[in-house]
Amino acid sequence: MAQPADLLHKAQARDAQAQLDLGQIYVEGRGVAQSDERAAHWFGLAAAQGNALSQSNLGLMYDRGRGVKQSDQEAVKWYRLSAAQGEANGQFNLGVMYDDGRGVEQSDQEAVKWYRLAAAQNHLDAQYNLGLMYVSGRGVEQSDQEAARWFGITAAKGHDSGQANLAVMYAAGRGVPLDEKEAARLLGLAAEQGNATAQVNLGTMFEEGRGVRRSLSQAYFWYALAAAQGLEDTVSLRDAAARKLKPAELAAQDSRISRWKPKPQMH
Question: CA 20, CA 13: separation in Å to the nearest integer?
């Protein structure tokens, strides 16, 4: 990518790609003072020229009220323009607006429509959200098999929530054969990325010896990490496990917890 001075010259000459790149630089504060206002300005100029990714980015700025006054209606307007050009982020974000009923009348069917279009372009969060729609039967006929399929696609790409949800389905035999070892494996992948729900579920698997060798030390370790993230009801699980450990075991796990860092998320 060109340096900001070169980009600025091109952007001022109405080069839409340069305007998009400059907006992204201001969002991230790379080589310039971070400024949501400047980012929104450049995204806006490129969006007005029909640049699809800038339209999606500008929609996100309105969605979150970053650099512009928050407006669900403006967010939807720019997401829709981007989505109509086939931009996956615009399609996904428009789906979310329909899902939540923000800036548009709530519609599960419209949400699914836009998620599906983005999912076809390998948009991870759209694929994951499709799984959620199939689990609950919102906008589609309820299907555990389809939910597991979409969660599986995202899980294979390292999506921690996809891994955690697919694990639950394996643990219950919903849409996939019952397989507690696979459930524990998937929970481990998500838990290592810092997914608090996966951490507490993995702790339970260790406490009960389901899919893994029973280990109160391991259960305590994962409960404690989930509790540190403020996940509801995990403090009592952590404390109950701690009471069953010998002082040396507890000290060893506390030392391990203090050194633990989540693996970078793959999505």
Answer: 13
Residues listed for the chain: 267
Whether residue 173 contacts residue 203, with contact meaning beta carbons closer than 8 Å, is answered with no
pLDDT confidence band for 2 (50 / 70 / 90): low
CA distance 59 to 47: 10
In a domain, 45, yes or no: yes
pLDDT at res. 265? 77
pTM for this prediction: 0.92
| Domains identified in the chain, total number | 3
Burial class from Cβ neighbours inside 10 Å (0-12, 13-18, 19+) for residue 30 reads exposed
CA–CA separation, 41 and 205 (whole Å)? 50
The parent domain of residue 222 ranges over: 195-261
The contacts of residue 143 (CB under 8 Å, 6+ apart) are 134, 137, 175
Q: What letter does residue 217 receive in the DSSP assignment? A: H
Q: Which of 134, 159, 188 is the last residue of a domain?
A: 188
* Cβ within 8 Å of residue 86, ≥6 positions away: 52, 117, 121
pLDDT tens digits, one per residue of 221-233: 999 999 999 998 9
